[in-house]
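Kindly inspect this one:
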Amino acid sequence: MRLPDEPELPLQINIVPMIDVIFAILTFFIMSTLFLTRSEGLPVNLPKAATAKQQQVPSRITITVDEQGTVSLNRKPIAVDDLTAQVRTLIGSNSEMLVIINADEKVGHGQVVAVMDRVRQVEGAKLAIATQKSK
């Protein structure tokens, strides 16, 4: 109950806590979207191609050949001789597996061909070479 001689206080909404909550939520969404980018291979300088297209295949294996010539299968270093057996194991019974080769633009042609030859020995492996779209 209000007494008749008390002054009526105007209603106020304090928005400072609401702004704090909004900034906290905004920070959460910004930070979480940074982790949504998916990188299949190790960072290499891909060659540029004017006809580069995005492949839409759900299951893929990534082979990376870095500038020093080190070969990695799904981000784990591997010897070129072991590549065929490991890719065959990863493919298993899946007949629609795409194998993407991320080769640095400074890697020798012979080494990329050697990796491609090992992948072609695996039945059911579809081969693709990663490039960057030229501007």
